[in-house]
Design a protein that fits this description.
With 216 residues, this protein is of the alpha/beta class. Strands 3-2-1-4-5 form a five-stranded parallel beta sheet, with helices on both faces. The mean pLDDT is 94.
């Protein structure tokens, strides 16, 4: 382990441990609702936090998205949209960042997942994603009924790891989540790609993370 004070790493899921979904998969959901892609994207993200934090069930979320677009859907429609949504986010791992989890564990660091993820997505993740890394602690927003950037969810993860904020590196692709983590004292990396994140971690903390350029 490095001689610096970093003891733990916290990883986001979407766009960090999994690759960013291609645009045509979002378009597939928009087409299912006969919506323009931009209008669908706006509706999709407008209600997403209510789904992520467990306020809305799967059907309630997709019902809200459809109603925003001037449509109505049945339970079977929401299941079909769930399948499209799940396949979009869980289609392919970022093999570099997933390898980091095992590497860091092997080198004595604590590792955690902190993901805004509904409970039904989490259940599918555990069943279908055999590539998913093993963590010392996992925090999912749905079961906790609290989502990033709420400070409570960061505290929950730190407590689960048994570390302090200033002993931890947090890696996430969302600027609001990064700002919230920094306000709590976590060393935070605004993830764009594995090469950029590895370089920033090496500069800030003298920790070398392996890269095989799987993203390219």
């Amino acid at each position: 382990m490095s001689t610096n004070k970093i003891k733990a790493f916290i990883f986001d899921f979407g766009n960090v441990l999994s690759l960013a979904p291609p645009a045509d998969l979002m378009k597939g959901m928009a087409d299912y609702l006969d919506a323009e892609e931009e209008a669908f994207s706006n509706a999709y993200y407008k209600w997403r936090n209510h789904y992520d934090d467990g306020t809305y069930s799967q059907h309630q979320y997709w019902e809200a998205v459809a109603e925003t677009l001037g449509s109505q859907i049945s339970q079977s429609h929401s299941q079909a949209l769930f399948d499209l949504d799940y396949n979009m986010w869980f289609r392919e791992p970022n093999r570099d960042t997933c390898a980091w989890v095992s590497y860091l564990r092997d080198h004595g660091y604590r590792v955690a997942l902190l993901s805004n993820m509904p409970g039904d997505h989490q259940r599918h993740l555990d069943i279908h994603c055999d590539w998913f890394p093993t963590f010392h602690h996992r925090t999912f927003s749905g079961p906790l009924k609290c989502a990033k950037p709420n400070p409570e969810i960061y505290h929950h993860t730190l407590d689960g790891l048994g570390v302090k904020a200033d002993e931890t590196v947090f890696i996430d692709d969302n600027a609001d989540n990064i700002a919230a983590a920094r306000a709590l004292g976590l060393h935070s990396i605004h993830f764009k790609n594995a090469q950029q994140a590895a370089a920033e971690i090496k500069t800030a903390h003298s920790i070398d993370l392996p890269l095989q350029n799987f993203e390219e």
